[in-house]
Amino acid sequence: IVRRYSDFDLLNNSLQIAGLSLPLPPKKLIGNMDREFIAERQKGLQNYLNVITTNHILSNCELVKKFLDPNNYSANYTEIALQQVSMFFRSEPKWEVVEPLKDIGWRIRKKYFLMKIKNQPKERLVLSWADLGPDKYLSDKDFQCLIKLLPSCLHPYIYRVTFATANESSALLIRMFNEKGTLKDLIYKAKPKDPFLKKYCNPKKIQGLELQQIKTYGRQILEVLKFLHDKGFPYGHLHASNVMLDGDTCRLLDLENSLLGLPSFYRSYFSQFRKINTLESVDVHCFGHLLYEMTYGRPPDSVPVDSFPPAPSMAVVAVLESTLSCEACKNGMPTISRLLQMPLFSDVLLTTSEKPQFKIPTKLKEALRIAKECIEKRLIEEQKQIHQHRRLTRAQSHHGSEEERKKKILARKKSKRSALENSEEHSAKYSNSNNSGSGASSPLTSPSSPTPPSTSAALGLSKRCKERDICITSTSSTSTTTSSSPASCEHRGTCPALVSGCEWHEPRGLAQLHPEFPKRNFEESQNL
């Protein structure tokens, strides 16, 4: 416990350096730690962790990952990236590292460096290095060919790749450094070189974009997504930090992520909804998150969104409802073409002279198609596991709840009361039938008198009685029917069990009348 307290303090101090202030529960000196205080402290620390893990940005933070799972996040990825970059510089001596851009992205295994060309020292570029992810299904040869193909991709809404190379375990790309930063930097009024947590986790001012900006940027992003899907190139990594701003033009970043097999920024959201199971529907859902952020200046508190705050136009709300509402997440996403036809984007005029160009050889197109199918298959399997886990958790919490336990207790009591009432009803019924048959003044029969066949049948005997004196005793206090002769039991009833209110007895006389429902074992009756 003491060790974990120090770990919590380290985590909290690191988050405060990043610009976050989350209060930890109070501490005591170690000598004063009693049982009640430890329980109170543990509860407070659990609440502290709940706040952190429910925040989408914090839950993906390297500090939090290392705290919760130190064994799997013990490697120093900055050092690994530097080793890979230095190996690259041996064969490409014209590049030079200016400085590492520490923690400007959200990924733990992706690192950035500010670069320059030796013969052009004033020009700044950004080098990004990332290793392979769980969705890498391309062969090493196809993977390296496609990475080296990225600089040839020309599109007015794709940010140009200056240089790209890859080996069997990672990829390295160089792009021009943009002082204005990304679309997320514009929304949060942030500086591009600042750490990701500091820029976006605790914004000083929350303000959305103007309606015309929302319409123009949204249309440009949808156009480039449609272009990539028409080419058969999977994307699945749309969010505001992957959209570079170049004047009034949005340009898409990080096309290499899907080739590397890296997880999407919003995977924890769309993996909960089984209808979002294709890469196109993933891009549409992620576009809904981006549109929400552009409109309101912040991400949604939770998804699906039950109700949307007032927006600059009802056309914006219509698109948000088609991508983030409960109905949309339950029934499925619209296509990219359908979004382009909606009133918010259909009247936007795009003026660009640059002609899109991205030639992918047929063999690589087939490899991309197979990789895309594998990515979607793994997503479906993950969604299935999450769905089963949620059902199991829901069932366990339902059966273990206090309310459910009370219901079970009440149901048991009601069942016992009902059984008792039925027993009394049957006893009264058989008592009345015996009285009506023999007269109200008829005396009780003795143990040696034979049982009439009709009465025996009414009592539901289903076995032939053999060479043994038995007595059938009713719980009624008004009549008793006995049998001592095997001949008197030559009948076959259809009921496999005794009538409620009767029990088997050895013939011990009238003293065996019992007012309660029998609790004896009926094993004796099976031999009769």
TrEMBL record:
<feature type="domain" description="Protein kinase">
    <location>
        <begin position="37"/>
        <end position="429"/>
    </location>
</feature>
<dbReference type="GO" id="GO:0006622">
    <property type="term" value="P:protein targeting to lysosome"/>
</dbReference>
<feature type="region of interest" description="Disordered">
    <location>
        <begin position="386"/>
        <end position="461"/>
    </location>
</feature>
<dbReference type="GO" id="GO:0005770">
    <property type="term" value="C:late endosome"/>
</dbReference>
<dbReference type="InterPro" id="IPR036871">
    <property type="entry name" value="PX_dom_sf"/>
</dbReference>
<dbReference type="Pfam" id="PF00787">
    <property type="entry name" value="PX"/>
</dbReference>
<dbReference type="GO" id="GO:0005524">
    <property type="term" value="F:ATP binding"/>
</dbReference>
<dbReference type="GO" id="GO:0005769">
    <property type="term" value="C:early endosome"/>
</dbReference>
<keyword id="KW-0963">Cytoplasm</keyword>
<dbReference type="InterPro" id="IPR011009">
    <property type="entry name" value="Kinase-like_dom_sf"/>
</dbReference>
<dbReference type="GO" id="GO:0045022">
    <property type="term" value="P:early endosome to late endosome transport"/>
</dbReference>
<dbReference type="GO" id="GO:0004672">
    <property type="term" value="F:protein kinase activity"/>
</dbReference>
<feature type="compositionally biased region" description="Basic residues">
    <location>
        <begin position="407"/>
        <end position="417"/>
    </location>
</feature>
<feature type="compositionally biased region" description="Low complexity">
    <location>
        <begin position="431"/>
        <end position="460"/>
    </location>
</feature>
<dbReference type="GO" id="GO:0008333">
    <property type="term" value="P:endosome to lysosome transport"/>
</dbReference>
<protein>
    <submittedName>
        <fullName>PX domain containing serine/threonine kinase like</fullName>
    </submittedName>
</protein>
<dbReference type="InterPro" id="IPR000719">
    <property type="entry name" value="Prot_kinase_dom"/>
</dbReference>
<feature type="compositionally biased region" description="Basic residues">
    <location>
        <begin position="386"/>
        <end position="397"/>
    </location>
</feature>
<dbReference type="GO" id="GO:0005886">
    <property type="term" value="C:plasma membrane"/>
</dbReference>
<feature type="domain" description="PX">
    <location>
        <begin position="1"/>
        <end position="75"/>
    </location>
</feature>
<dbReference type="InterPro" id="IPR051837">
    <property type="entry name" value="SortingNexin/PXDomain-PKLike"/>
</dbReference>
<dbReference type="GO" id="GO:0043271">
    <property type="term" value="P:negative regulation of monoatomic ion transport"/>
</dbReference>
<dbReference type="GO" id="GO:0035091">
    <property type="term" value="F:phosphatidylinositol binding"/>
</dbReference>
<dbReference type="InterPro" id="IPR001683">
    <property type="entry name" value="PX_dom"/>
</dbReference>
